[in-house]
Amino acid sequence: MTEPAVKGRCPSLMTPMESGDGLLVRVKPRAATLTAVQAEAVAAAAGRFGNGMIEPTNRGHLQVRGLTDSTVDGFAEAIAGIGLAAAGPQAEAVRNVLADPLGPDDPAAQFDSHALAHRLSAVLETDPAFHDLPDKFGLLVDAGVALPLAGRTADIMVRADGEGLFIALAGGDCRLSLPESGLEEAVRRLLAAFLAWRKGQGSAAASPAPKRMRAMAAACGARAVFDAAGLNGARAVESVPEPAADRPPAGFVAVAGAAQGCFAAAAPFGSMEAGDLAELADLSRRFADGTIRVTPWKSLILWGVLPANAAAVGAAVSDIGLVAAADDVRSRIVACAGRPRCAGGHADTRADAAYLTAAGLPGTGLLHLSGCAKGCAHPAPAGATLVAGPGGYGLVRNGRAGDAPERTGLTPEAVARILAAAKPAGREPPARETVRTGAGWG
């Protein structure tokens, strides 16, 4: 049984959120992976119980829209029936583990990120001590080399570099190197330390208890957080890395050291129809390994595609209506749900994105359309960000939705003229590793 719909928090399968087009929930693939059977079942349930619209999210989840009070339980039961749910609402709400898409299929990976992601997800699901974590709290496990989670952050991050494996904290200025065998226990200790600190903060202040690790790191210092968890030896880093926040291009991606590659199919403007997901599942059976990898870049990846089949897969993905090539203008546009799908949106961002696509976007780099200043669809900087307000769009260049706009009150037609006159630009500026972690978990 799902819990009553809520506002202002992260929805999950059993805690729906009210929106402009009904209730929305999120399906959370474990270790970024859906089998073809699971993908088809999600698609069928989204069409039967919702309005058939599915949105890949920044967390690597699938957001399903248009559910109602009378259908939301049926959807949850269908998803639980294919093994994509925890046993109860609290366990499901905190099961937030983002993993790189390829996991052990990446020949250059230093550890099996998918195996660790499965173990950490099981910890969050089965240990009642962690069910008190805030629903926005999340973990990240990244061993990717071909498709790393560059520029993505979470409250607790497990990564690899040339020196080995390490754990870092959101907002922290140090990291702890560990052998692979010690990662799971270290994460457990950090979770327990955060919950103990959060409980003390909540009882000592009238304001709500902090919800993110960044708050603890800011208040205590990252080294003190590791010490509180009984994890000594954290090493300070002189400067926080700034990996580029580039999204893999749509289309075929060769993987070094592998005879096969992967194909990235992007959801145009961040949204797809349920039938699109079902057709991708069929393509994966025919041309790939029979799975679909869900990414935080609004795209779905088929792994195991032979270079000789790349053109056929691309043609099929294009026929479905998804973005299949890097030179597709839609690959440079990110849009939130917008009005009327989102009650907080001030404009129909998806319709305006389609208009701007038809108008052409020379020299804009990445274009982000946000229905409000929250910037849920793309928390990182973009070459141009359009922020809808009651009086029209505000234009932010090389910044985020919450930044001060250089122009306001713009219509889509005015935006098209301004962007058409823009000087050629490169790809979007990289997102700093120090970006607030809440932004990366919409």
Task: Please specify the SSE layout and strand pairing.
Layout: E1 17-19, E2 22-27, E3 33-35, H1 36-49, E4 53-56, E5 62-67, H2 72-80, H3 89-93, E6 97-99, H4 113-126, E7 139-142, E8 156-161, E9 164-169, E10 174-178, H5 183-204, H6 213-220, H7 222-228, E11 235-236, E12 251-254, E13 261-266, E14 272-273, H8 274-287, E15 291-294, E16 299-305, H9 310-320, E17 333-335, H10 349-359, E18 367-370, E19 382-389, E20 392-399, E21 407-410, H11 412-420
Parallel strand pairs: 6-7, 7-8, 17-18, 18-19
Antiparallel strand pairs: 1-2, 2-5, 3-15, 4-5, 4-14, 8-9, 9-10, 10-11, 12-13, 13-16, 15-16, 19-20, 20-21
How would you describe this structure to a colleague?
This protein has about 450 residues and is an alpha+beta fold. It folds into four domains: about 15-95; about 110-145 and about 155-235, Sulfite Reductase Hemoprotein, domain 1 (2-Layer Sandwich); about 255-325, Alpha-Beta Plaits; about 330-440, 2-Layer Sandwich (Sulfite Reductase Hemoprotein, domain 1), CATH 3.30.413. Helices cover about 30% and strands about 20% of the residues. The chain contains eleven helices and 21 strands. The strands form four sheets. Strands 6-7-8-9-10-11 form a six-stranded mixed sheet. A hairpin with a 2-residue loop joins strand 1 (about 15-20) and strand 2. The longest helix has 22 residues, at about 185-205. The chain starts with 16 loop residues before the first strand and ends in a 22-residue tail after the last helix.
